[in-house]
């Protein structure tokens, strides 16, 4: 339901609602004057309105920066672009001077100001006071952004870009009734003007205007859909594991019945169809309860996500027939696959083997199953070895996916693995246990199939929980380690907003006691060899590009240069990371080309190749040339190094004072890096991980309780024999408790091996240490909670089973007679 809701949730046009067609740059419109002239020449165009936009920040009365709602944009504009909304004045008048602004009504309410009041807005040189000349709103009040309107001259100054126009809004002339026809005409005009570079522009009408308006800004619905997709895949994976184990155990308990059916001429296909139909009927019965329950849970999750500010209150939960029916079909498919796996072996039982099959332990796994399991482990081992040696990136879901692969291998070889684990672990432990414990060990060793049925869901829960909790800790630890190795700077100034205005780095460099300072500006473009064919995609990489002041780089960064020198960086040179240099087959002295997202192109000579490019940049560019192609001149971070002999604490105090006039800037220690920046999507991911782990562990707890209940209830005859041999009820219950504890111990051991197989290679790759960071508290609670659930279940069901007539000594004697 959440996935369907995210797919149906649209992003309505807000700032461009008053236009017929939008021509949007990605990130800005090059040659804007020429495009405006071309658009105005079209007979079907009344006029084209440029939108000059740039990120800005306001501070409230307490001095805290104001963030746009739901991680949306907070932009400053020229008042000329207000016509795109159209933004209509609700109070006051348009800005008449450079010290006046118009706010949208939502922002004015957030700040508690109106016409005639004063607000402080961030600019290239820090905070500056502006008088609110008016408050305006379009017909559709913006819900995902804030807007501030300046005079045209002030907007150009604040944008600080050579190409500040983000888009053009095209207003149709009277008599042009079809916006689609106008869009095609505008597209032709764009192609005629830009030729092959027209791909950097988007021409949109109708609902497409919202995509152009929020280009590069993830909507709450898109964040939700990606997280819910992962949630759903893992849910099906866990359900498949649990259902398969439960059905296998249930069918194994019916071997006598199946053997008798075979004795009266039932075929293997009939047996399999019987089990499949039974499972289908169970699925239908479950759907009658599960589908309405799922609707209720979806409503609860929707409320949790809204209260957690992951979703806006306006996000509508779609309650319709599509999601329930799709869920029932998926559940039926998963259950049928599980039923096929469970029925395959049972349908092949021969009537003469009924007594042996029902009394003896399950046979060894088939050769094909063993080979498949070994192949799965071998494939996972190859991938994890590549992660450990750096030949494969362990991020991007690779590590988490390897856990699922290892769990598949564990399920395939579960009886064999439990047999080996029992011989290596349980048998030696029996020497140190009391009589009930020794009997429990013998019971587990004699029936590894029963042990595997209980261990598998526990391993699943423990492994997934451990991985999902520990992987972020390891990657964060690796990023901090790489940052410490890379930084020569004593102070890192990070941003809690869209970025830090360039004036901060310029003023910091002039502070007493500062040896060097530079901002780190992220720019978008593609790297390629300068002599490569433009159409040769193999020689082009999507580069993570960072621009800095060339003269400050050697003072601020130790990039592990092994070829060339950072001192050679200049306006026409670039430093490349190892991976980029290897992919492009270039070295020092060669020339590389950067194709910018705005359609521009620059060529640089390689001055150095460095090894510390993990979590940093594929290429380090001179700021002066890269800034011409940046959509906004805002630094991600600012690096500052104290001069020899200067007081570091005094420099830090000066940086703190300077940060007070640059909204969102905060001074951290050099080891902090940029780890302090978080976003709405990060909060959503953390909340979803918590929900996912809760689902996995609750579902696994239900599976373990089901499995233990089925196994324990089916042992009434065994309990009666123990009672006939003189065992007391308390002794039998203690035996069951020991079985539960030892089963959990085996599961914990196997889960530890699975997690170590995944986490250790990742830790070696990103931190250089084979000892991974662990979420000790949650894992300890889970490891302690599993035996409690298992012991409580077995003792309760065992007590009930021994009270039944068939489990008493007298009942057994009557049955035998």
Automatic annotation (TrEMBL):
Pfam family, one: MacB_PCD
Keywords, sorted A to Z: Cell membrane, Membrane, Transmembrane, Transmembrane helix
TM regions (residue ranges): 227-253, 274-302, 322-343, 370-390, 402-431, 451-474, 687-714, 735-759, 779-798
Bilayer topology term: Multi-pass membrane protein
Domain ABC3 transporter permease C-terminal: 230-349, 692-803
Domain MacB-like periplasmic core: 34-188, 496-657
Subcellular location: Cell membrane
Principal location class: membrane
Keyword Manganese: no
Homology family: Belongs to the ABC-4 integral membrane protein family.
Protein's name according to its UniProt entry: ABC transporter permease
Origin species: Streptomyces coeruleofuscus
């Amino acid at each position: 339901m959440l996935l369907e809701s995210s797919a149906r949730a649209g992003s309505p046009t807000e700032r461009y609602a008053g236009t017929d067609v939008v021509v949007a740059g990605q990130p800005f419109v090059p040659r804007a004057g020429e495009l405006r002239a071309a658009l105005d020449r079209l007979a079907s165009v009344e006029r084209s309105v440029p939108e000059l936009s740039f990120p800005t920040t306001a501070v409230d009365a307490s001095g805290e920066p104001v963030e746009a709602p739901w991680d949306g944009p907070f932009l400053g504009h020229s008042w000329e672009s207000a016509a795109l909304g159209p933004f209509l004045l609700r109070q006051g008048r348009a800005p008449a001077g450079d010290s006046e602004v118009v706010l949208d009504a939502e922002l004015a309410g957030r700040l508690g100001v109106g016409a005639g009041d004063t607000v402080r807005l961030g600019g290239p040189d820090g905070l500056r006071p502006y008088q609110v000349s008016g408050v305006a709103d379009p017909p559709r009040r913006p819900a995902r952004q804030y807007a501030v309107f300046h005079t045209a001259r002030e907007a150009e100054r604040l944008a600080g870009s050579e190409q500040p126009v983000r888009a053009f809004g095209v207003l149709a002339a009277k008599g042009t009734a079809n916006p689609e026809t106008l869009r095609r005409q505008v597209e032709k005009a764009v192609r005629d003007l830009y030729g092959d570079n027209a791909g950097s522009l988007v021409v949109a009408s109708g609902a497409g205007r919202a995509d152009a308006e929020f280009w590069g800004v993830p909507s709450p619905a898109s964040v939700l859909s990606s997280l819910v997709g992962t949630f759903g895949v893992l849910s099906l994976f866990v359900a498949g594991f649990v259902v398969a184990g439960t059905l296998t155990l249930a069918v194994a308990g019916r071997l006598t019945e199946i053997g008798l059916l075979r004795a009266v001429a039932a075929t293997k296909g009939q047996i399999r169809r019987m089990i499949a139909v039974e499972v289908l009927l169970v699925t239908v019965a479950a759907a009658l309860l599960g589908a309405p329950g799922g609707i209720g849970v979806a409503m609860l999750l929707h409320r949790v996500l809204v209260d957690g500010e992951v979703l806006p209150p306006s996000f509508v939960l779609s309650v319709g027939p599509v999601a329930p029916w799709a869920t029932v079909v998926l559940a039926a498919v998963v259950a049928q696959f599980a039923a096929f796996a469970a029925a395959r072996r049972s349908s092949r039982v021969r009537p003469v083997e009924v007594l042996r099959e029902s009394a003896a332990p399950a046979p060894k796994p088939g050769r094909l199953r063993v080979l498949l399991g070994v192949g799965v482990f071998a494939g996972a081992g190859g991938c994890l070895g590549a992660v450990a040696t750096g030949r494969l990136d362990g991020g991007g879901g690779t590590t988490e996916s390897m856990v699922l692969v290892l769990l598949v291998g564990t399920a395939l070889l579960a009886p064999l693995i439990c047999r080996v684990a029992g011989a290596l672990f349980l048998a030696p432990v029996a020497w140190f246990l009391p009589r009930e414990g020794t009997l429990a060990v013998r019971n587990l060793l004699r029936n590894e199939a029963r042990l595997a049925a209980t261990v598998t869901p526990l391993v699943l829960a423990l492994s997934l929980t451990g991985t999902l909790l520990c992987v972020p800790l390891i990657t964060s630890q690796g990023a901090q380690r790489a940052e410490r190795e890379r930084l020569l700077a004593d102070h890192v100034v990070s941003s809690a907003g869209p970025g830090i205005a360039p004036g901060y780095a310029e003023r910091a460099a002039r502070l007493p006691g500062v040896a060097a300072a530079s901002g780190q500006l992220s720019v978008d473009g593609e790297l390629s060899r300068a002599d490569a064919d433009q159409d040769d995609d193999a020689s082009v990489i999507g580069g993570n590009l960072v621009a800095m002041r060339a003269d400050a780089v050697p003072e601020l960064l130790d990039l592990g240069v092994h070829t060339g020198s950072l001192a050679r960086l200049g306006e026409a040179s670039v430093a490349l990371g190892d991976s980029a240099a290897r992919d492009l087959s270039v070295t020092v002295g060669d020339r590389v080309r950067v194709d910018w997202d705005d359609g521009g192109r620059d060529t640089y000579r390689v001055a150095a190749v460095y090894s510390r490019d993990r979590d940093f940049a594929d290429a380090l560019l001179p700021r002066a040339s890269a800034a011409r192609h940046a959509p906004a001149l805002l630094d991600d971070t600012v690096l500052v190094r104290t001069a020899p002999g200067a007081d570091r604490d005094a420099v830090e105090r000066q940086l703190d004072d300077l940060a007070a006039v640059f909204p969102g800037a905060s001074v951290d220690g050099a080891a902090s890096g940029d780890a302090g920046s978080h976003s709405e999507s990060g909060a959503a991911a953390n909340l979803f991980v918590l929900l996912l782990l809760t689902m996995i562990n609750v579902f696994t707890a239900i599976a373990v309780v089901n499995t233990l209940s089925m196994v324990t209830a089916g042992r009434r005859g065994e309990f009666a024999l123990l009672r006939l041999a003189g065992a007391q009820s308390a002794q039998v219950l203690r035996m069951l408790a020991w079985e539960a504890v030892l089963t959990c111990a085996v599961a914990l051991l196997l889960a530890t091996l699975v997690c170590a197989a995944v986490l250790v290679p990742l830790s070696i790759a990103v931190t250089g240490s084979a000892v991974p960071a662990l979420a000790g508290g949650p894992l300890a609670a889970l490891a302690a909670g599993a035996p409690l659930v298992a012991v409580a279940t077995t003792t309760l069901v065992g007590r009930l089973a021994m009270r039944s007539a068939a489990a008493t000594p007298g009942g057994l004697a009557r049955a035998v007679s």
